[in-house]
Amino acid sequence: MAEVDPSITEKGCAVSGRRSSYTEPVVGGADTIAGRGGAAGSAPRRARTLASHGQTGRQSLRPRTSIMRSGVTGHATAAAYRPDIDGLRAVAVLVVILFHAGIAWMPGGFVGVDVFFVISGYVITRGLLREAASGGIGLGEFYARRVRRILPALVATLAFTTLAAYWLLLPPQLADYAGSATASALSVANIYFWRSSGYFDAAALYRPLLHTWSLSVEEQFYLLLPVALLLAVRLRLRRLWLPFGLVAALSFGLSVYAGHYAPTANFYLLPTRAWELLLGVLLAMAPRGSVALPPALRQAAGLAGLALILAPAFLYTEATPFPGAGALPPCLGAVLLIRLGGEPGGGSAATRLLAAGPLVAVGLISYSAYLIHWPLIVLARIGLMRDLDVAETVVVIGATLLLATLSYRFVEHPFRRPQAPARPALAAGFAATLALACLGWAGTASGGLPGRFPDFRVRPVPGTETWNHRTCFLFADQTWQAWDQAACTRTTGKDGLVLLWGDSFAAHYVPGLIRHAERLPGNLLQYTAAGCRPTLGVASYVVPHCRAFNDNALALIRRLGIRDVVLAARWGAQRDRNVPALLHETVAQVIALGARVHVVGQSPEFPLDPAFLAYHQRRDPPDAAGRWRPVAETGLNGVLRSVLPASATFVDPNAVLCDAATCPYARGGTFLYADSGHFSSAGAADAVGRYLEAGLFAPPRSAAALP
User: Fold this and answer.
1) How far apart are CA 180 and CA 157, in angstroms?
2) Is residue 240 part of a domain?
C-alpha cells in the first residue's frame, strides 16, 4: 500500500572548487531526495554544506572515462544548491506519511514515492554527469557514497525495529519480519514482498519493513545506471538521451500492460518502475533553457506542477490502477517543478513555496522520516491492539519527525566524511549487510523464535482449507475460465442451487455452509475470487479480471436456473463510494433473472489477528470471554440495507454476532477467526448458524429486512 521510499532517492548535489563533487540524495539528508531543499535565505550555507559532503578523491576503483567529446558537457555544468528540490522532497514524504497514518482525506498519498523516484533520477544523474565532465565516472566511489548515504540510517532503523518486533510479534509474524529484514539488507525487499504478497500472506499491518520495497527498487536501479552511463559515454553517443529514452518508453509500456495482467509485479518490480526514475535521468540530460519564460506562463506552470502531484494524493484510492498511466500525473508534476526551478529568471510562486524554511527542514530529514514512520505506525497499532485515534496519530507523526531529526544529526552526518576512502566504506557496508542478513536468516530458520513464549502456544487456525484455492476461489492472476463448476458444487441431494458469489469474505463462509448444508434451500455452488466484490461493472486494479468474473456470474444464474444467490464481500474495501449503487443495480439484475437474493453485510474485523489479542489478554487457550472491539463499521451495513428492494433479504453480521461494544473472537477455547477478518472453520459454522436463525433464507419481513 504504498508507498515509495524517499531514502531511495539521491541527495542533492553541489560543486566544490574545480573538482566535481556531489552528494547522493537519500531521504532525510540536506542533500537527499527525502531531505528537501533549505530555505532560500540559507541556500549558500547549505550549498557549502552539501559540497563538503561530496566525494573528491579518485580511487583505484574508478574507471576513468572522459566525456568532454561525448556531447554530455552541455548537461554537466555546475549547479547551485536547489532548496526547492528539498522542498519537493518534503511534500513527497509528508503525503506518504499522512497516507500511511490513515488520514482519510489523503487516500492517494502513495504517489509521494513516485515523486521521489523522479527527484532521485534527476539528482543522481546530474551528479554523475558533472563528475564525468571533470575527469571520469568513478564506480567504486559512487557505490561507496551509496553505502554511506543509505546504510547507516537503514541499519539504525532495522536495529530499533528488530528489538521492538522481538517483544511484540508472535512467531509467525516474526519469521516473516526476519525474512523481510534480510531482504531489506540485501536490497531485494521489493522481490521478497512481491513473492510473498499472496492473498493469505502476512497482512501489511504486521510488516514493519514493507515500505523498504522502494529502497530496493532504487538501489537496483543505481547498480545499473552508472554502468549504463559509462558505457554510453565510452561509445561517444551524440544523443546520450536516446537509449535512456527508449528504455523509459519500454518500461512505461510494460507497466501499463502489467497493470492488467500482473498488478502485484507491476507495483513492486524495477522493470515497471524504471521509467519513473528515468524521467529524472532524462531531465538531467536536457539542456538548460537560455531564455526566461514569461512570468504568467512561469506561474501557471508552477501551479500545474503542484496540482499534478497534490490532486492524485487527494483523489486516488487503493483501487486506482497504479503505477502505469496513473503514475504519470505526479511524475510529470515533479518534472515540471524541477525544470521550472532551474529556469533562468527565477522560479514561480510554487518554487518559492517549496524553498520555504519549514518544507526545507522536513526535506532534510525525509530519508530518516521515511524509514522510521512506517515501523512506528505498525508497532503502535500492535502495541495498542487497535487503530490509532487522532491524538495518537499526531503523536506518532511528531515522534517520526523527532526521531528523524536525531537520526539525521547523529546517524547520517557522522558517515558523510568528504575524504573517506571508498574501499573501507564498501567493506563496512558489506559486513553490516552480511550481519543483518544472518540475523534475519536466524529468525526465519527458527520459525520466529517461538521459545520467547514458553507459556503461550500459537497454533494454526483452520480456516481456508475448504475454499478450493484456484478452483472455486480464484486468485488475481486467474480468469473466470479457471473456475470448475463440477468441483465447486457441493451436492447434498437437493433440487436447485444456492450460488455463493463474492470475494474472500464470501469464501470464508464455505465451511459453515457445508456444516449446515441440510438447512440450505439447495446444493451449494461456490463462485468466489480474491478481492473481487460481487457487483457488476466493478473494475478492480488488484484483480484485473474481476469485471469478466462477475459478468459470468449472471450467465451462470441464467444458464443453470439458479434459485438462490448469496452475495457476501468485504464491502468496505478500497473505499469505493459507489458500492451501494453498484449493489442496487446488481441485485436488480439478479432478481430479473428469477432468483432470490440474500445479502450478507460486512462482517466484523479486528485490528489484530486474534492470536495477538489472546496473547496480550494472557488467554491460552482463549476462554469463552475472548472478546474485543472490532474495527468501526461506520454505518456501511445500514447503507447497504437501504438500497435493497423488499424482495431481498439482508443480514447484518455485526447485529447478529456482536453486542453494543465488542465481538467475540473466540468461544469455548476455540478461535472464531483465522486472521483479523476471515472466519476460521469454527467461526464460519457459528456465524452461518446464527445467520440462519436470523432468517437468512426466510422470506423477508419487510423492506427493512433482517437484523
Assistant:
1) 13
2) yes
- Omega before 323 cis (within 30°)? yes
CATH code, domain carrying 586: 3.40.50.1110
Query: HSE of 419 in the Cβ direction (CA atoms, 13 Å)?
Result: 0
Let me know whether 418 and 521 are in one domain.
Answer: no
Q: Which domain holds residue 265?
A: 6-451
b/e sequence 476-498, b meaning 16+ C-beta within 10 Å: bbbebeebeeeebebeeeeeebb
Residue indicated by cell numbers 438462490: 564
The Cα 23–Cα 206 span in angstroms is: 34
Long-range contacts of 657-663 (CB under 8 A, 24+ apart): 657/603, 657/604, 657/687, 657/690, 658/604, 658/630, 661/629, 662/627, 662/628, 662/629, 662/630, 663/604, 663/606, 663/627, 663/628, 663/629, 663/630
| % helix, strand, coil for the chain, step of 5 | 55, 5, 40
Of the chain, the percentage scoring pLDDT greater than 90 comes to 54
pLDDT digits (tens, 9 = 90+) for 623-679: 445 778 887 666 889 999 999 999 999 999 999 999 888 899 988 778 899 888 999
Over residues 606-621, the pLDDT tens digits come to: 888 888 888 776 554 4
- Asked if residue 488 and residue 359 are part of one domain, the reply reads no
Q: At what angle do helices 139-168 and 390-407 cross, to 10 degrees?
A: 140
Residue appearing with cell numbers 532521485: 120
Pick the range with the lowest mean pLDDT from 156-165, 389-398, 571-580, 651-660.
571-580
Query: If residue 109 lies in a helix (H) or strand (E), which one and from where to where?
Result: none
- Checking if the pLDDT of 325 tops 90, the result is yes
Q: What is the pLDDT of residue 32?
A: 37
Half-sphere exposure of 464 (CA within 13 A, CB side): 18
In a domain, 457, yes or no: no
Which amino acid type is present at position 33?
I
Same domain, 436 and 363: yes
Number of domains, the chain: 2
Number of CB atoms found within 10 A of residue 318's CB: 17
Identity at 114, one-letter amino acid code: D
Q: Is the confidence at residue 193, as pLDDT, over 60?
A: yes
Burial class (CB in 10 A: 0-12, 13-18, 19+), 412: buried
Taking residues 334-355, what's their average pLDDT?
Answer: 87
